[in-house]
Specification:
Blueprint: H1 2-13, E1 18-19, H2 30-47, E2 49-51, H3 55-63, E3 67-69, E4 72-74, H4 79-83, E5 91-93, E6 102-104, E7 108-111, E8 119-121, E9 128-129, H5 132-144, H6 166-177, E10 182-183, H7 189-203, H8 205-210, E11 214-220, E12 225-226, H9 228-239, E13 243-251, H10 260-281, E14 287-296, E15 303-304, H11 308-324, E16 328-330, H12 342-357, E17 362-363, E18 369-370, E19 375-377, H13 378-396, H14 402-405, H15 407-413, H16 423-428, H17 444-449, H18 455-469, H19 477-492
Parallel strand pairs: 2-12, 7-17, 8-19, 10-11, 11-13, 13-14, 14-16, 16-17
Antiparallel strand pairs: 1-7, 2-4, 3-4, 5-6, 8-9, 14-15, 18-19
């Protein structure tokens, strides 16, 4: 009965995306925020930023009034902020299933799956290189979770497919095995073009002229460098009127000074350059202000996650992003642990909670991340996804009305009696509390008699059950055939490359 009730509850509240009803945490004063902006301006004026091997991007900035010497760009104070003014404050991203369209910006919050891991792991197979089957599985699991709204992009690297061809299989998996919003390839301009071409087969070229359906995940090569791979992919998506998520991935002490104010201001400067470039290519192109700020172990050089310093940085950068007014993205359930253990959940909880409280509009890496991003775990994925549901309940906040104050329950029960059987409880029991399916609240004896399984073992059973019950979302047969024909044609036009 308990599980049946949970399914009924989830069916009534399953969101296409979330709307925040609690305020973001305001860590910094106006004076502190201004000082960070001034530091970012100083970096762009005095130090500058470089764009490597992309004369088109350099020319766009030159024509916009930047000082360009070789590959180094410098800007007058206020110039970059002005170039970003045409970026939309909110926008809609269309999914294959229109009921799953997403609204970026404002008080909206979107959770997406992990991104970029070359390895996968589960209790049966252990740690191994990812395959296209793993990739498809994670798209299916994302599709089945009511708390993941975005399919992300390279959920894992399908290393059994040639490097120069795997993007075709990945985009097909996103389009065929799921029907939510997704990201295309960014590892080369032509792969971004293929991603857009495949989206046009599904959504229609005319529709995509005025509607966002695919994004590129663009990472700065910190400190203070954009390379041609990223800027050419960025320009490809923006030119097509599609989206970009511009993210600065900085570990303080390695890719920035070790102190957090320097890290935060550098992130702000780097991201604003990418946002400005999208607007120079196509004014009004949808773009997300992204950050991925963390620390490192200064003894070993290893990345660390969920630390107090990275929490403070995320809260601060969220405030800066809100001042710009562009939808904000940050990291999610991040950990350097290799296992689904106490370290993994402690670090993941710290990192995810501060992202939610920072006012983020888009949190991907929200499910599956292990080993500093080198691995995506099946069990970790479903545990993280369930925690996204718990956080979704938190941002709903509290309602205050006569039904919530439950005066009829007091009148019915009187004093000293249990409320379990009251009419008020019966009206609300299905949805009153978030039901964490993977947590075991039973007695020790019942837990023992049912096998004494820990959460990772329960999660293993759950993900296997989900994949067994997966149903492919419908797609017109002619559209599917056109996608497969495009893939066959593109693959036959090039030899396999494995590096």
């Amino acid at each position: 009965m308990r599980r049946k009730s949970r399914k009924q509850s989830m069916a009534t509240i399953e969101p296409a995306f979330l709307t925040r009803r609690i305020p973001p945490y305001e860590l910094l004063s106006e004076e502190a925020l201004s000082s960070l902006e001034q530091q970012a301006e100083w970096l762009l004026t005095e130090i500058g930023i470089e764009i490597h091997d992309d004369p088109v991007a350099l020319q766009l900035f030159r024509e916009a009034g930047a000082s360009v010497k070789g590959q180094r760009l410098r800007f007058d104070p206020g110039h970059i902020r002005a170039l970003c003014e045409t970026a939309p404050k909110t926008f809609t991203m269309h999914a294959r299933n229109s009921k799953k369209n997403l609204e970026f910006g404002g008080d909206n919050l979107i959770f997406g799956a992990a991104y970029g891991s070359p390895f996968v792991t589960d209790l049966e197979g252990g740690r191994r290189y990812g395959t296209i089957e793993d990739f498809q599985n994670f798209v299916k699991l994302t599709h089945m979770s009511p708390w993941l709204h975005h399919q992300s992009g390279t959920i894992c690297e399908p290393t059994d497919v040639a490097v120069n061809k795997r993007h075709l299989d990945m985009v097909y998996a996103h389009l065929r095995y799921g029907d939510q919003a997704f990201m295309g390839s960014v590892t080369a301009a032509e792969r971004a073009e293929d991603s857009i071409a495949m989206a046009k087969i599904v959504f229609g070229e005319e529709f995509m002229r005025d509607h966002l359906v695919v994004q590129g995940n663009i990472n700065v090569n910190s400190p203070l460098v954009y390379d041609n791979t990223m800027t050419s992919a960025l320009r490809t998506y923006a030119q097509a009127g599609q989206g970009n998520v511009i993210s600065s991935f900085i570990m303080s002490g390695a890719m920035s000074p070790v102190t957090q104010p320097a890290l935060i201001a550098q992130c702000h400067a780097e991201v604003m350059i990418g946002i400005a470039l999208t607007q120079l290519v196509c004014p009004g192109a949808p773009v997300v202000y992204g950050s991925f700020l963390t620390t490192m172990d200064l003894k070993s050089g290893a990345p660390t996650f969920g630390t107090p310093e990275s929490t403070l940085a995320t809260l601060a950068i969220g405030q800066l992003a809100r001042r710009v007014g562009i939808p904000f993205r940050c990291g999610g359930h991040l950990t350097s642990s290799k296992l689904v253990d106490a370290q993994a959940m402690l670090e993941s909880g710290n990192a995810m909670n501060c992202g939610v409280m920072s006012g983020a509009n888009f949190i991907f890496q929200a499910a599956g991340w292990l080993e500093s991003g080198l691995t995506i775990g099946y069990e970790k994925f479903v545990i993280d996804a369930e925690q996204c549901g718990a956080l979704a309940r938190v941002i709903q906040g509290l309602e205050f009305d006569q039904e919530q104050f439950a005066r009829d329950a007091y009148l019915e029960n009187g004093i000293g009696n249990s409320f379990l059987g009251s009419e008020h409880t019966m009206r609300h029991y299905r949805a009153a509390n978030f039901d964490a399916e993977l947590c075991d609240p039973n007695s020790f004896e019942q837990w023992r008699d049912e096998g004494g399984k820990d959460m990772q073992q329960r999660a293993h059973y759950k993900y296997k059950k989900m994949l067994a019950e997966y149903e492919m979302p419908p797609m017109d047969q002619a559209t599917d055939e056109a996608l497969l024909e495009f893939i066959t044609r593109r693959k036959s036009s090039m030899d396999d490359m494995w590096y």
